[in-house]
Backbone:
């Protein structure tokens, strides 16, 4: 049986790490694509030469074009710009929309049955754009953000309580970053809600640190943003899909009335399997949580409207 084929567009920090984690888990063969000449080829060759040491037989190819991507099972899109001094959020929105739109057109023309996983920021708007541009059913276009946000929350909870990260689950809804809505009452340590383990002010401090998790890393790195955890999160989605795990994960998914939102991609728990987003998991929210979610959806809607999607 042929190995699954995973295309990763954007061979920068996140893209290269997605390729690395994917082959280390031997999830499939990987095609790395970037506009910069030599970068995808060089990184693919370097990762191929790590194979004998790590013991994976996944093949790696780097390219500046899309022919090698034909018949991919999954296309992970990390191509884009990060905000530079003097650039407004809108500049980034329009620039990345141009990049992601072009990438999606090229990729889907050669892989009509692929599942698209978006990573480029502003995440929720880029997923909506990719869905529109691809013409794919919404189940096959999904965005990565919630796994990262919840992984950050889990890390901080585990550190605070001095327990294994494996014991900690966390539930996060809404758009990526500032407007995310963590749900402490559904966040647990070995099944015990953290609301039984930590005082409210401590939980609030961890929530605030999580919402600012990306900015904290940007401030430390000075140039560039986080990539190990974002890449690990994207690869968890790749694995859930290719292995048809039916894993419940927070992802940016298309809502068709769920949580009171229609026609918009927002972060919610979904079931990920070989068909993509197989189900949106709906839970009952308190009025306060629903208000947070509505605010988050409104922020996404604003960007989507600017792109006239
Ligand atoms: O939670 C999340 N969704 C995110 C999002 C977490 C981390 C990073 N997030 C966003 O992913 C970030 O704000 C950026 O929009 C993307 C990629 O982040 P990364 O850190 O990997 O940026 P790099 O290192 O600058 O890499 C981007 C690459 C770079 O090599 C460019 O040459 C390439 O994208 N690029 C392109 N590749 C292909 N095709 C086109 N058109 C193109 N334009 C740029």
Residues:
């Amino acid at each position: 049986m042929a190995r699954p084929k995973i295309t990763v567009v954007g061979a920068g920090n996140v893209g290269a790490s997605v390729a690395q984690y994917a082959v280390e888990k031997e999830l499939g063969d990987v095609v790395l694509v970037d506009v910069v000449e030599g970068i995808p080829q060089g990184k693919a060759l370097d990762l191929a030469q790590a194979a004998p040491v790590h013991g994976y037989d996944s093949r790696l190819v780097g390219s500046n074009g899309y022919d090698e991507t034909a018949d991919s099972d999954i296309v992970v899109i990390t191509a884009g710009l990060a905000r530079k001094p003097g650039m407004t959020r809108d500049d980034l929105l329009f620039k990345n929309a141009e990049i992601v739109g072009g990438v999606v057109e090229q990729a889907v023309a050669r892989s009509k049955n692929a599942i698209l996983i978006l990573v480029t920021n502003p995440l929720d708007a880029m997923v909506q754009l990719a869905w529109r541009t691809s013409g794919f059913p919404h189940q096959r276009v999904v965005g990565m953000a919630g796994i990262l946000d919840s992984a950050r929350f889990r890390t901080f909870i585990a550190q605070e309580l001095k327990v294994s990260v494996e014991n900690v689950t966390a539930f996060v809804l809404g758009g990526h970053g500032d407007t995310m809505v963590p749900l402490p009452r559904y966040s647990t340590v070995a099944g015990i809600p953290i609301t039984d383990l930590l005082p409210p002010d401590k939980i609030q401090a961890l929530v605030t640190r999580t919402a600012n998790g990306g900015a904290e890393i940007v401030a430390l790195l000075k140039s560039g943003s986080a990539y190990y955890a974002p890449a690990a999160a994207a690869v968890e989605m790749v694995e859930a899909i290719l292995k048809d795990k039916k894993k419940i994960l927070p992802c940016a998914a298309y809502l068709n009335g769920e949580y009171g939102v229609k026609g918009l991609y927002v972060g919610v728990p979904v079931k990920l399997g070989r068909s993509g987003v197989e189900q949106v998991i709906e839970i009952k929210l308190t009025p306060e949580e629903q208000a947070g979610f509505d605010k988050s959806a409104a922020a996404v809607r604003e960007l989507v409207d600017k792109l006239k999607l």
Notes: The longest strand covers residues 262-273.
